[in-house]
Write a structure and sequence with these properties.
This protein is mostly helical. The chain has one domain: MFS general substrate transporter like domains (Growth Hormone, Chain: A, Up-down Bundle), CATH 1.20.1250.20. Helix content is 77%, strand content 0%. The protein has 17 helices and no strands. Helix 7 packs antiparallel against helix 14.
Length: 388
Amino acid sequence: MKTKPFAMSPVIFIMGLVSLFTDLSGQMIVPILPLYLTTVLHVQMGTLGVIEGIAESTASLLKLFSGWMTDRIGKRKLLMVIGYGLSNLVKPFFALSASWGQVLVIRFADRFGKGIRVSPRDALLADLTTKEERGKAFGFRRAMDALGAALGPLCAFGILAIYEGNYRLVFLASIIPGAIAILLLIFFLKEKSDSQPHKPRELPKIRFKQMDRKFIWFSLIITLFTLGNFSDAFLALRAQDVGMQISLIPLAFFTFNLISSLFSMPVGALSDRIGRRPILITGLFIFAFIYFGFGFANHVAWIWVLFILYGFYYAFTEGIQKAYIADIVPEGQRGTAMGTFNALTGLAALPASVMAGFLWQAFGPAVAFGASGVIALVCALLLILIRI
């Protein structure tokens, strides 16, 4: 059956715009939040790891629930509106925070919203595409996501350059792109009306019964990789540790997200032609090299190089993972499958960030980043050896 090109679908285009403005809002905050915590609120490195880990992992179970729910009701948009709405509305409250406990609550609410929206969004995108164009479509959404993530740090840099050290002003300014994202989603995203609800009789569980063998192995390997893929907040702190000026750190994040935006769609299209596995394996090797580099870097110039390469890692992995899952899971089960995958990898984020925080605090950054690099190499070899 002939399908019209994904680029002609207004739903996919609007999804891309929503991702762009949401990440623009979020990435105005991400590069400076760890600096705000450590320099203004005087939070220890281990506590930062706990905050980031809890924020990511406790909301991860919602990715499973929302995936199951979106399959059950056959609707994607409602959960997306709730999730995007919550995330974008709570971010400005960072400006009112005066303790790490308050930051944890706001960060959790933000990730809570992400837990609700991600699985329905991924399932909707999978439903709208065929296997032959799916890599390019997921790459397009990822490119828009990364473009927003590039513009966010650039906006933060501009604000901090004019109002030096005024982190709270950055937090408040993030409400503008967040509000645009919510309005686009509510008024311009039209969900297809012919989707048939899939109604499982059981409550959602993280389990692999009746799931494809490829999905099982892939989920387990990427979950293992996530145990070493700790929060990007540590990259900002490492850049500062090596000697990068605080005002330039948002520009480093702008750089890697710009690279990711430029290459996500071409790499996705390449995966449509040569397959997802070789692209993902390459991405894991790139990640290992980057993290070894961050661990042993002793000059700011190397930090810039590593941030550039980090953009390639994102282009080679983020959208490709979801496209691969969509390839091997039937349409009526994609929400649950995406939710299961997102929940497993999200839950692994807690020990990842906690481990990184305490390894850094106890043994230094070389050990923290080196351990992550080793885990990435192991996972790359597993993808090579296990034919999935």
